[in-house]
Write a structure and sequence with these properties.
two-stranded antiparallel ribbon, about 5% helix, mainly beta
Length: about 60
């Protein structure tokens, strides 16, 4: 995961870009990204996402 900045001031918002390689995967997928910070109340936050892969990435050209 890559953030648009590495440091944020209190209350400031940002964006985290996550790349998920789908080659060789089909069907329902669930993944997590762990974000660590110096926030004493929430030093670690786990972001989770789910998706449904309908076409194998290796066969994507055939599906177009």
């Amino acid at each position: 995961a890559i953030g648009d900045k590495s440091e944020f001031k209190k209350g400031e918002e940002g964006e985290i870009i996550v790349t998920f390689a789908t080659a060789g995967r089909l069907g329902a997928q669930s993944k997590t990204v762990t974000v660590q910070s110096n926030d004493p109340k929430h030093p670690t936050v786990v972001l989770s996402f789910t998706c449904e892969i309908l076409v194998n990435g290796e066969n994507a050209k055939e599906a177009k």
